[in-house]
Amino acid sequence: MLACLAALGALLSACGGGSGSDSAGAGQGTTVSAQVLSGVAATGAPLAGLASLRDSSAVPQEKSAVIAGDGAFSFDVAGLKPPYVLRAVGSVEGSKRTLYSIADGPGIANINPLTHAALANAAGVDDPAEVYDARDPALLEKARARMPASVAMLRAKLQPLFDVFNVGVRDPHRQRFVADHDGIDGMLDSVRITLNGGVLTVTNAGTGAVIFTAPVRSFEQAQSAERDDKLPRRAPRLQAPTGVTAVGGPARVTISWNPVPQATSYDLFYMALPNAAARGESDDEDEHEDDEEDGDDTHTVGQDEGRWITNVTSPHLLAGLAPNTTYAFMVRARDNPRRGRPSAKVTATTTDGTPAPSVPAAPSGVSATGGSGQVTVAWNAVAGATSYNLYWSGTNGVTTSNGTRIAGASRPAVLTGLANSATYYFIVTAVNAAGESLASVQVAATTLPPASPPVTPPAAPSGIAATGGSQQVTVSWAAVAGATSYNLYWSSSTCSSGVTTVSGTRIAGVTSPYVHTGLTAGTSYCYVVTAVNSAGESAPSAQAAGTTSPAAPSVPAAPTGVTAVGGTQQVTVSWNPVSGATSYNLYWSGAQGVTTASGTKVTGVVSPYVHAGRADATPYYYIVTAVNGSGESAASGEATAITNAAPPPPIDGAALYSSYCAGCHNPLPGDFAGASAAQITTGIANVGAMRTRFNATSGTLIKLTPEQIAAISAAMQ
Fold first, then answer.
1. How far is the C-alpha of 542 from the C-alpha of 704, rounded, in Å?
2. Using an 8 Å Cβ cutoff, are 184 and 165 in contact?
3. What is the rounded distance in angstroms from the CA atom of residue 223 to the CA atom of residue 227?
């Protein structure tokens, strides 16, 4: 048995009467921390994973703790140097998340997407992981000093979103909340907050609409979120309970109320009002949800401190109160787990006379989570309890007889000085003047394995090489043992004197080979590379230089002098040569206003270009572009041409002769075989009968055209 350990001091007012087994390796240094940093790690749903803390010592000390099922975590920070940078790594609904936060001392510091973004802004970095990994005291101090303002500014930018969930003045960083899908946690459930490439984006989780986006380093300069339909909609809250009454008795009050539809449970708030008679109804307690301490059972109004009790039923007897004291009460309903609106305040005054005290109930909701040489034990408050005893052992089956007792334990209790990778068992009892309650159910937790040896900065990268290309340089280097990332520093102006981590421009988080793009053609660039891990940044590598390729020729000018000439079922297009062009493209269309997008493209054409296979008597429209290795020029002006009309069909001279000549001049070749067209024309003009019948002007049978006469002559040959 560990008897009256001096190391526990005032925190151990008594020692248990059991064997005090040391089988788990706990020794004389086991104690309950008086300097605790605690919070909740959640994105709406709690993270399932590990929370880590790194202090600001020259050689940083690091601790880890398992995140409890409700997202809670706690650290013993005695002997650590603030500020402390916090990291939570775990999974939420199947997705891995890593989030960061910071604390300037013991107390409360939550880890959530809002603290993640605020820390990056406060430190002036794109990724808050840089703060966790930093060994620069100036950066840590900058982040600590600016964090409250960054949180406040982020809340201001998202004020319409905060107002939807009635948490407009809540601090998501330093005020306690519960991962119960209500209040701030309900707000985090309804949105997706991402930080990628230095850009903070808040979207509606249901619709995907962007509510707010801005560079994280300067989100204070961005336009605030608007009160519009992009915001999520909060379901109506349960109505406030009615018919609330409070009846005082000897050091006790009985509170009753009417049931609320759809309520799954009720919470009761009470607070002593020593000046209630003087204040009367003029003292209006703020019932706004913003002022409720999410997840806490205390509530402060003015100089008075009250308490919320969860899972109460009507009527509820609240005993253990001070006699002759006026108390205020409010009741609210819950709808698994959303809080409804509080009822109107009622008051009652206890009477004189103290009834026989009753032993409090056994504590409920007891949980234990392991950490680095520590276990955090938490439990729900017990009505009527004035203190709590914590019993622990390294052996399963701890009782009030065989466990080591820690009297007056606070919630949560962080038991430190424990062995690594060891399992410990705990029970809790509630105490008041009537005695000690029955023990809670036993809970157990296992401490984390020993911390890895201190990490040292990696060696400088070797084998660095730089190869120029078209407006880019490819930089490569050999992998460095222990490096988690690499930084590249470059310059085009200090190559002769040597680029350094001070004179060069840094590109963080690069991988080998790294292609540095967007550079000037025909220019030399020099590079050094450093390796990075959690201990810091290595010395720079040797310098490597690469020269980009010469500038490519410019895109040629648009062709000029474009003409189009129509022909028989073809159009001939011509244009002037363009300096620097290696080929030409022609675009054509049957509609006016041809463009490179609307026209049919013919590549690799030369001037003059004969566009064959066209329809007769049809207009065509053309533009021409010039091409070289740098691209295609703008289009020329439009040229147009119409193809020739179709030739008439051939004339059948033999048929004409048979129809009009054979009757008088015998069948072909006829009486005047071999007559020419001119002779036939003269005969028609001079012979009256023929003139009357066939003359092109005066003929009555048919007016033979010169073409028809020529065909008849051809048939007579």
1. 101
2. yes
3. 12
Q: In this structure, are residues 696 and 705 in contact, taking their beta carbons and an 8 Å threshold? A: yes
CB atoms within 10 A of CB 383: 18
Residue 22: the pLDDT is 37
Listed residue (675, 651, 648, 650) closest to 661, CA to CA: 675
Q: Which residues pair with 75 in a beta bridge?
A: 37
Model pTM? 0.56
- Euclidean distance between CA atoms 694 and 604, whole angstroms: 57
Instruction: List 331's β-bridge partners, or say none.
Output: 268
Q: How much is the pLDDT for 304?
A: 45
pLDDT at 646: 83
d(CA 200, CA 221): 13
- Identify the CA nearest to 339 among candidates 270, 268, 272, 284: 268
What span, in angstroms and rounded, lies between the C-alpha atoms of 594 and 635?
10
Going by DSSP bridges, is the β-strand pair 485-491/84-92 parallel, antiparallel, or unpaired? Answer: unpaired
Hey, CA dihedral for 174, 178, 183, 189, is it positive or negative?
positive
CA distance readout (Å), 586 to 226, 582, 618, 663: 52, 14, 18, 60
Torsion, Cα of 492, 495, 499, 505 (10° steps): 0
> Cα separation of 690 and 128, whole Å?
111
Burial class for 168, CB neighbours closer than 10 Å (0-12, 13-18, 19+): middle
- Report whether the peptide linkage leading into residue 315 is cis, meaning its omega lies within 30 degrees of zero: yes
Cα(280)–Cα(23) distance, integer angstroms: 59
**DSSP SS3 for 146:** helix
What are the start-end ranges of the E strands in 313-401? 316-318, 326-335, 338-339, 346-349, 367-370, 374-378, 387-393
Distance CA 135, CA 238 (A): 50
Bridge partners of residue 247, in order along the sequence: 254
Under DSSP, the state recorded for 402 is T
Give CA 43 to chain center in angstroms: 12
| Pair 106, 126: CB distance under 8 Å | no
Three-point CA angle 552, 584, 471, nearest 5°: 15
pLDDT in tens, 374-413: 999 999 999 889 999 999 999 999 999 999 999 999 999 9
What pLDDT is stored for residue 650 in this prediction?
87
Task: Give the helix, strand, coil percentages of the chain, each rounded to 5.
Answer: 15, 35, 50
Burial class (CB within 10 angstroms; exposed 0-12, middle 13-18, buried 19+) of 236:
exposed
Q: Are 160 and 225 in contact (CB under 8 A)?
A: yes
Buried b (16+ CB within 10 A) or exposed e, 84-118: bbbbbbbebeeeebebbbbbbebebbbbbbbbbbb
Task: List pLDDT tens digits, range 286-323.
Answer: 333 334 434 444 444 333 467 888 889 999 999 878 88
Map tokens 């007012």 to a residue: 13
DSSP 50-88: EEEEE--SSS--EEEEEPPTTSEEEEE-TTPPSPEEEEE
Q: For position 684, what pLDDT does the model report? A: 81
Provide the token pair at 214.
């801005």
Over its C-alpha atoms, the chain yields an Rg (Å, rounded) of 46
pLDDT along the chain (717 residues), means of 10: 31 36 46 90 91 92 91 94 96 91 96 97 96 89 96 95 90 87 87 95 93 94 86 86 94 94 91 56 35 42 63 90 91 83 93 78 94 94 91 96 94 93 96 94 94 84 94 95 95 88 94 94 94 92 93 88 93 94 95 94 95 93 93 94 87 84 81 84 80 73 82 84
Residue 93: per-residue pLDDT: 81
Please write down the HEC assignment for all residues of 570-625.
EEEEECCCCCCCCEEEEEEECCCCCCCCCCEEEEEECCCEEEECCCCCCEEEEEEE
Helix or strand holding residue 39 (H, E)? strand 36-40
The reported pLDDT for the residue numbered 305 is 60
